[in-house]
TrEMBL record:
<feature type="domain" description="SLC26A/SulP transporter">
    <location>
        <begin position="57"/>
        <end position="437"/>
    </location>
</feature>
<dbReference type="InterPro" id="IPR001902">
    <property type="entry name" value="SLC26A/SulP_fam"/>
</dbReference>
<feature type="transmembrane region" description="Helical">
    <location>
        <begin position="432"/>
        <end position="463"/>
    </location>
</feature>
<feature type="transmembrane region" description="Helical">
    <location>
        <begin position="378"/>
        <end position="398"/>
    </location>
</feature>
<keyword id="KW-0472">Membrane</keyword>
<dbReference type="InterPro" id="IPR011547">
    <property type="entry name" value="SLC26A/SulP_dom"/>
</dbReference>
<feature type="transmembrane region" description="Helical">
    <location>
        <begin position="164"/>
        <end position="184"/>
    </location>
</feature>
<protein>
    <submittedName>
        <fullName>Sodium-independent sulfate anion transporter isoform X1</fullName>
    </submittedName>
</protein>
<feature type="transmembrane region" description="Helical">
    <location>
        <begin position="86"/>
        <end position="108"/>
    </location>
</feature>
<feature type="transmembrane region" description="Helical">
    <location>
        <begin position="128"/>
        <end position="152"/>
    </location>
</feature>
<feature type="transmembrane region" description="Helical">
    <location>
        <begin position="241"/>
        <end position="259"/>
    </location>
</feature>
<feature type="transmembrane region" description="Helical">
    <location>
        <begin position="338"/>
        <end position="358"/>
    </location>
</feature>
<dbReference type="Pfam" id="PF00916">
    <property type="entry name" value="Sulfate_transp"/>
</dbReference>
<feature type="transmembrane region" description="Helical">
    <location>
        <begin position="403"/>
        <end position="420"/>
    </location>
</feature>
<feature type="transmembrane region" description="Helical">
    <location>
        <begin position="307"/>
        <end position="326"/>
    </location>
</feature>
<keyword id="KW-1133">Transmembrane helix</keyword>
<feature type="transmembrane region" description="Helical">
    <location>
        <begin position="59"/>
        <end position="79"/>
    </location>
</feature>
Length: 604
């Protein structure tokens, strides 16, 4: 004897709204305990546990990272079209702030190639714009962190971020080709740089070209030193990690030793302003370099335009990606990382910094050097300050070809080759948003290319939501032809019309052939949720099916999904049936005892 499952009581269809006041009260209570202090000020958690045997490891790691940070900062200052000193101004404060607020021991915060490239179009030789972008980006990132908006990063897929990174690497490396061969150039963009290079290739300076190419080869070879099976592996390891500093030192020595009668053998980056940067608020007004006209704050913000969206977004994306890569199984608190990054930018702007974020290259060096805590950032920051205080006159001899080789060598390994291969092997369709992002970023701009990639990838999601998993199967029970529609997942407004059209077309064809389809059953135990548009379309579907002498039932729907329709129109509650099996449902529908509970009389 079959036993039917009773329908749920009316109370179950009531919509459960979130308890806002309860959530606010819980948050307020959680802000008043030590766990909240440890959350928002992570240094209070790890510093009491600090062991003295960690100190040598942090010192070595900090020094090793510093030897890379100094030449990279100078190079990235040039990439941003700023005086070299501004790269160094950007390289120390982030390390000090991250000690207090950061959650990942490996991350180093400072200037990066992507941030420098993003800032370049808005600078035009005026550092005030770079400093203001640093301040405003920091404010935006901090507010987003406090509002727990780190979840927005989930809307940017791996193919898009991988494509953006590859495009940025191509663009940055291309921008240094002219300097690598000693050709003076102010060209920006992928095509412009190559057009200028081939158009002025006869202006190649022999000394610069030899130095640049040899330095590039040296850097690539030194990267492999750590993998050689020699006895003193630790020496080779740290020599490999310090390869940028070695390249800069060799370049400076060659430039100094080969000069004749005051003439330098290479094009150099120029003098670096000696001394520490002054502590002062970021500029909220500036002068136009051409006309000398004063530009107020509103004018500066108008000039940077979309950078106030793209730079914070990419800064967060880059930093969170680095944190996840080196979290080693720990859960990354994205919101706290955003707060740390935002405050780092805000405070750095008071020292004339351009926008900064987490650096993958220096973080990898930090991790490989065996850093134990974020305290290594203080050593790196101190080394940068010492460079500004005592070594700026020495760095005036750095050849541009050397800096170009350092940047190009870094770009070789910025491309995520392994991830590209994984995308291709996993799902070849995902290579499309990757390619769209790469092409748009390279041949258009990085900001708009990223937006195009995100929108293009979102179209895949919309297309998928337009066609939910829906299988139609015809069954017969006691001579009654039943169309079983099996739906899975969430069904939203984009799929509403598709669902109605699919079922109506099927029933129309069946009735045209045999005229026997008298019942459509939508099985909904795997439907997580629906919205009002779907509910209205199902109501319309029922009315249209009735004109074809066909009834519509919703069988074993989840309460949240069924509740949307039942709250919209209480008369539609009879459309929902619950039973343990399909045969029980059909027996209930055909039995005379249940005739008063059925939506239609199937005996007709």
């Amino acid at each position: 004897m079959s036993i039917s499952v009773p329908p749920p009581p009316d109370d179950l269809y009531r919509e459960r709204l979130p308890d806002v006041w309860g959530a606010v009260g819980s948050k307020a209570r959680n802000c008043c305990n030590m766990r909240a202090v440890h959350k928002y000020l992570p240094v209070t958690d790890w510093l009491p546990k600090y062991q003295w045997n960690f100190l040598p490891m942090d010192l070595v790691a900090g020094l090793t990272v510093g030897l890379t940070a100094v030449p990279q900062a100078i190079a990235y200052g040039a990439v941003a079209n700023l005086p070299p000193a501004y790269g160094l101004y950007s390289a120390f404060m982030g390390g000090f702030v991250y000690i207090l607020l950061g959650t990942c021991k490996d991350i180093t915060v400072g200037p990066t190639a992507i941030m420098a490239l993003m800032v370049r179009p808005y600078v035009n030789g005026n550092p005030a714009y770079a400093i203001l972008l640093c301040f405003l980006s920091g404010c935006i990132i901090t507010i987003m962190g406090l509002l727990n908006l780190g979840v927005l990063m989930r809307f940017i897929s791996v193919p898009v971020t991988t494509g953006f990174t590859m495009a940025a690497a191509i663009t940055i490396a291309t921008g240094q080709v002219n300097s690598l061969f000693g050709i003076s150039s102010s060209a920006n963009g992928f095509l412009d740089c190559w057009i200028h290079f081939f158009g002025h290739i006869t202006e190649t300076r022999r000394n610069d070209a030899i130095l640049g190419c040899c330095t590039l080869v040296l850097l690539l070879l030194m990267r492999q030193l750590k993998d050689l099976p020699f006895r003193f592996k630790s020496v080779l390891k740290y020599t490999s990690l310090s390869r940028n500093a070695v390249a800069v030192l060799v370049g400076i020595l060659l430039c100094y030793l080969l000069k004749k009668d005051g003439n330098l053998p290479f094009l150099v980056s120029g003098s670096i302003t000696p001394g520490l940067p002054p502590f002062r608020p970021p500029p909220f007004h500036t002068e136009d370099a051409g006309t000398g006209e004063v530009i107020n704050f509103e004018g500066m913000v108008s000039n940077v335009g979309s950078a106030l969206v793209s730079i914070p977004l990419l800064s967060i994306l880059e930093s969170i990606a680095v944190a996840k890569a080196f979290s080693k199984g720990k859960i990354v608190d994205a919101s706290q990382e955003m707060i740390a990054l935002g405050i780092s930018n805000v405070l750095s702007s008071f020292f004339s910094s351009m926008p900064i974020t987490g650096s993958f290259t220096r973080t990898a060096i930090n991790n490989a050097s065996g850093v134990k805590t974020p305290l290594g950032g203080a050593v790196t920051g101190t080394l940068v300050l010492m460079t500004l205080a005592f070594l700026t006159s020495t760095f005036a001899y750095i050849p541009k070809a050397t800096l170009a080789a350092i940047i190009i060598a870094a770009m070789f390994f910025m491309v995520e080759y392994e991830t590209i291969g994984e995308i291709w092997r996993a799902k070849k369709r995902d290579i499309l948003p990757f390619l769209v992002t790469v092409l748009c970023c390279v041949f258009w701009t990085l900001e708009y290319g990223m937006v195009v990639g995100i929108v293009f990838n979102a179209l895949f999601l919309l297309y998928k939501s337009m066609k939910p998993q829906c299988s139609l199967e015809v069954q017969k029970f006691n001579g009654i032809e039943v169309t079983m529609a099996d739906l899975k997942g969430s069904v939203d407004y984009a799929a509403a019309e598709y669902l109605k059209t699919t079922i109506m077309s099927h029933v129309t064809v069946r009735n045209g052939d045999s005229g026997t389809c008298s019942l459509v059953v939508i099985r909904g135990h795997e439907i997580a949720s629906i919205d009002t548009t779907v509910a209205l379309n199902l109501k319309s579907l029922r009315e249209d099916l009735s004109l074809l002498q066909c009834d519509l039932l919703c069988w074993n729907w989840s309460i949240p999904a069924a509740g949307v329709i039942c709250r919209m129109d209480t008369k539609l509650r009879s459309m929902f049936k619950f039973s343990s099996s399909f045969s029980d449902l059909m027996q209930t529908m055909t039995s005379k005892e249940a005739a008063s509970c059925t939506a239609v009389d199937l005996s007709q």
